[in-house]
Amino acid sequence: MTTLLAILIGFLFSVSIYLLLRRSIVKLVLGLLFLSYATSLLLFVTGGLTVGKPAFVESQTQIASKVVSDPLPQALILTAIVIGFGVAAFAMVLIYRFHRETGTIDMDELSETNQK
Amino acid sequence: MEIITILILCFFLATVAPVIRQRTGIWSGWILAIVPAAIVVWLVVIYPKVWAGNAFRAAYEWLPQLNMGFSFRLDGLSWLFAMLIFGVGSLILIYAGYYMKTYKNTKRFFAYLVFFMGAMFGLVAANDLMTLFLFWELTSVTSFLLIGFKHHLKAARDAALQALLITGTGGLALLGGFILLGIEYQTFNIEVILQNPHIFLNSKYFLPISILLMVGAFTKSAIFPFHFWLPGAMQAPSPVSAFLHSATMVKAGIFLLARLLPLYSQSDFWIYTLTIFGVTTMFAGGWLSMAQNDLKKILAYTTVSALGTLVLLIGTGTAYALTAALVFLLVHAFYKATLFMMAGNIEKKTGTRQMDALGGLRHWMPVAAIISYLALLSMSGVPPMLGFIGKELIYEAKMKAPDAAVFILLAGFLANVFMVFVSARIAFSVFLGPKMSFDKKVAEPDVALLTGPGILVILSLLLGVFPEIAQNIISPAFTSIAPDESLVKLKLWHGFNNILLLSVLTVSAGLLMYFARKGLINRISRLNELFFNLHLSERFFAGLNAFMSFAGRKTSFVQHGYHRFYLMTMILSATALLWYGMFKMNFSWDSHLFEGVLSWIVLVAIFVIVSASIATVTTSNRLNALIYIGLVGIGLTIIFIYYGGVDLAITLIVVETLMIVIGAMVVYRLPKYIRYSGVTSRVRDVLISVVFGATITAIILAISPDYQAKEVADYFVENSLTKGFGKNVVNVILVDFRALDTLGEITVLALAAIGIASLLKLKLDKKT
Amino acid sequence: MKSQIIQIAATYLMPFLLVLSLVVFYRGHNEPGGGFIGGLIGGSAIILYAGAYGLEITKKLWINRPTALIWIGLAMALLSGFFAYLTHGSPFMTAVWVQIGSGPFALKVGTPLLFDLGVYLTVMGMLVKVVLTVMEEVL
Predict the structure, then answer these.
(1) What is the nearest CA distance from A85 to chain C, expressed in angstroms?
(2) What pLDDT score was predicted for residue B767?
(3) What is the pLDDT of residues C10-46, one digit of tens each?
(4) CA–centroid distance for B451 within its chain
(5) Residues B404, B409, B412, B418: what is their CA dihedral angle, to the nearest 10 degrees?
(6) 3-state helix, strand, coil in chain C (%, to 5)
(7) Which residue in chain B has the smallest CA separation from C107?
(8) What is the mean pLDDT of residues B654-681?
(9) Does B333 share its domain with B229?
(10) Which candidate, B274, B269, B252, B264, places its Cα nearest to that of B122?
(11) C77 CB near a chain A CB, below 8 Å?
(12) Are residues B428 and B281 in the same domain?
């Protein structure tokens, strides 16, 4: 039963790779988004899972018990999500510009850097 | 401290040189020459200290962990070279100020020239192998820039590239040798290394170090078989040829050999190798110089010959040979710089430097002719010039060479005969002889163009008549390379002996050859065609082109341009490596991460994520795809909340929404989905992605609890309230404990915003 | 494109969202929230307004040069790092806290708060800049 999350992450990676391998540049960007989801979740579970105990410390006494969820991967993922947003926005604008310059969204037509 | 001041002064002067050039035009040479001239004065003032053996020092830490230092030491040898660099340098600057007036973009020319001067000084003053290497490479780079100064000419670009590649390869070899030396000695300090030559001589790296160091010195000093870049470098304007490629930069290899002399003076291998290469280069350079028609090429080949002589003398290593080497260093710098400047003058005034087009120049430029005669006399070794003393010493050194004296003497004799022949040829066919007609109106070169050559020639003459001065100049250098030997006394007149006889024979043979020149040059050329036609330069470029096309073929095989297949290569290799790593670590399947923490909420989330993902892949509507992706994000949010990642969840849901907004605006303008790939490639891609996904799942299941860095997390949790004054540990990590990471992150965000703005606003030039 | 309902909603929602973003930002040190989330919410407020009323009015009324926000934010974050260095000679990014008042109304102010404000402004500026530029281009 508990292996479900591991399978879910593997599944998200599969979806991301499949989309990355498409010729359409739009799907490529969608694949990037999936890749960042999958990676976030991967980081999240490797920190160990604790149910319903956010990483807050109310007082000195509570520190001793140490049963909050691991804050470190959370901080990493928070950074990753926001950067991922910047990258995704950039990628989207890039494909928009790519299409406007080349008139296509087919990656295979991008095999040369020179303009035809 | 003084050394650093000089370096800073030179590099500062290099940065302001363009401004000075722009403001003062042809007078800039005189102004720029003030600094090196002042340095020469300072060098003269400190001479007593240098003579007394007190070296000036400066040392700074660079990378102490690797024993690398930034340190300098101005001893006798450095002093002699510094005198040459700044003395000749100031004269060259005066000359160049006027000479370059017909060139374009001369501002950077002067910056390079002055920069080179500083770099060359750093090289000769270095007391640390890494410092020396740094400046060594700087001189290569400035040489490249100066050879290629007329970069609109393909020949100049090729010659510059050739010189850079050869000296650069040599520099690489040198670095290798230095590093091995550093490993053996645990230091790069030259002084320390020279005090303990036995470590080097008994080192297991003796042979590699020796070969690497020699390759470095030989490439820089244009020793056979690397000599061919130097004639090519004649593409540079004449001041550069006079300064870098005769008087200073090409002597860097000689300097290195002289500097390291105490290290290898006991090694037969070094002595024989240096002798063989020295003799070969000396002879070949002289031989090749005879049949040339281009004045500067002739001078270049005689320079090659002179460099060979220097290597031979240093390799011989006796007191006589070393004295001869140091004297010849001065002699050669004086007459060769003069002749190169004269060649520049002739080209400037007549428009050509081809031997057969020149003649009778003494009628138009008598002063230049006299200066040239004197320099040529010095080159042929005729009294009372300093060149005579140099040649006498060389003969004497060769006669007293420990091994193969006869053979060396014969080769040396022939090389000198060739020099006399070349000198006679230049003197008679360029300055004397019938008047030729020229396109330009020929006149005496201007004062600035004659100052440098004049002073150098007068020095040659003075030092020849008063050899004690020359003796005093080279004596500190001699002491610093061979402290146990004593300098041979310099004399202009040795009395009637074998050596004088040899000198007379040399000059007569050279003159005889000149009178037989008509048939001789043709015969030499034919002989060259038959036997010595190595065409090293052409071969070098053929090799370079073959290498380029090989690289091109390799690149087009690996870089095929299909994005999908790049990714496929990466994913499959990553998969293989991951499995390899897992098997290496003897993984086991029992996972400790997820014990008893699954509930129906998570099940619902998983269901949403999986179905939305499948819908994203299969949908044929691009806007729907965006919405499904949003659903995947919501599923993730639920998982994050359930397992305590509150901040994550909030951020993710906001980001998700905004991403859909931007995506919708962009996708709105893109064409509809088209099915690009066929069934086969789809099945193949599904297989690849499933294999990769399964790999990741396997890795997660194999994660053992031991690998979790709990201590770090515990530190953050424990200290969040006490040291960071915040109850939200995640936030405290972001803004306090790891704030530097966050700073980097918001910088990335700023760049993304600017990037997006410029992507959309950028106007590309459409080629019509 | 311009709908009455959205316009009315935007008019009322926007101030609320802006205040909310500040609240979320401020309480972030002790409760869920912080500069990132606050900045995203604040940026969304302006985007919502732009979506309802169009670019020109938004630029005129609210924000003409979102890039300025980015630079100010980055500079604040950077300066907060140098603060301890300049006052105490401590390493870059060392936190300095000052307590204002005492008792139940004690308020702790420190460079991390300034840093978080920098994050807030940068994220908000970036978001607004990106979305407004894309809107200008595409619509």
Answers:
(1) 10
(2) 44
(3) 888 889 999 999 998 888 878 888 888 999 999 999 9
(4) 32
(5) -130
(6) 75, 5, 20
(7) B725
(8) 84
(9) no
(10) B252
(11) no
(12) yes
The alpha-carbon gap from A46 to the nearest alpha carbon of chain B, in Å, equals 7
Whether B588 is in a domain gets the answer: yes
In the predicted structure, residue B502 carries a pLDDT above the cut 70 = yes
In order of A61, B300, B425, the CA distances from B292 in angstroms are 94, 10, 11
**Tokens standing for A24?**
């359409």
Q: What is the pLDDT of residues B179-200, one digit of tens each?
A: 999 999 988 999 899 998 889 9
Tell me the C-alpha distance between B498 and B242, whole Å: 35
Q: What is the ipTM of this complex?
A: 0.92
Instruction: Give the β-pairing of C107-110 and C97-100.
Output: antiparallel
Helix (H, G, I), strand (E, B) or coil at B416: helix
Residue B704: give its domain's CATH number. Answer: 1.20.120
pLDDT exceeds 60 at position B595: no
| End position of a domain, from candidates B238, B263, B288 | B263
Q: Which of A67, C108, C93 is nearest to B717 (CA)?
A: A67
The whole-number pLDDT of residue A114 equals 58
Q: How confident is the model at residue A116 (pLDDT cuts 50, 70, 90)?
A: very low
> In whole angstroms, how large is the CA radius of gyration of chain B?
36
**How far apart, in whole angstroms, are the C-alpha atoms of residue B148 and residue B767?**
31
Whether B289 and B168 share a structural domain: no
Total domains, chain B: 4
pLDDT band at B496 (very low <50, low <70, confident <90, very high): confident
pLDDT in the model for residue B403: 67
Mean pLDDT of C116-121: 92
Judged by CB atoms closer than 8 Å, whether chains meet at A18 and B686 is answered as yes
With vertex at residue B463, the alpha carbon angle to CA B80 and CA B452, rounded to the nearest 5 degrees, is: 75
* Residue A48, pLDDT score: 72
Would residue B23 count as lying in a domain?
yes
Residue B768 — very low, low, confident or very high, per pLDDT cuts 50/70/90? very low
Residue B556 lies in a domain: no
Sort out which chain A residues have CB atoms less than 8 A from C138's CB and list them: 96
Look at residue B540 and tell me if it is in a domain: no
Same domain assignment for residues B256 and B328: no
| Segment 39-98 of chain A within 8 Å of chain C by CB | 54, 56, 78, 82, 86, 89, 93, 96
* Rounded alpha-carbon distances, angstroms, from residue C21 to B21, B489, B742: 59, 90, 19
Same domain, B250 and B286: no
pLDDT recorded at residue B404 = 66
Q: Which residue has the tokens 């002879």?
A: B283
Residues B676 and B595 both lie in one domain: yes
Contact yes or no for B235/B150 (Cβ under 8 A)? yes
- CB of B694 within 8 A of CB of A10? yes
Give the contacts of C1 (CB within 8 A, at least 6 positions apart).
C139
Query: Tokens for B7?
Result: 């370096």
Q: What would the two tokens of residue B323 be? A: 């004295």
Looking at the fold, whether B704 and B714 belong to one and the same domain comes out as: no
- Contact between chains at B760 and A6 (C-beta distance less than 8 A): no
Number of domains in chain C: 1
Q: Can you read off the two tokens belonging to residue B729? A: 């540990």
Check: CB of residue B289 under 8 Å from CB of residue B422.
yes
Which token pair is C42?
């604040």
Contacts of A84 (CB under 8 A, 6+ apart): A33, A36, A40, B655
The reply to whether residue C31 touches residue A54, judged by beta carbons under 8 angstroms, is no
Chain A, 32-61: which have a CB under 8 Å from a chain B CB? 33-34, 37-38, 40-42, 44-60
Residues B159 and B41 in one domain: yes
N residues, chain C: 139
Query: What pLDDT is recorded for position A1?
Result: 41
Range of the domain at B208: 1-263
Domains and CATH numbers, chain A: 4-51+59-107 (1.10.287.3510)
Least Cα separation, residue C7 to chain A (angstroms): 26
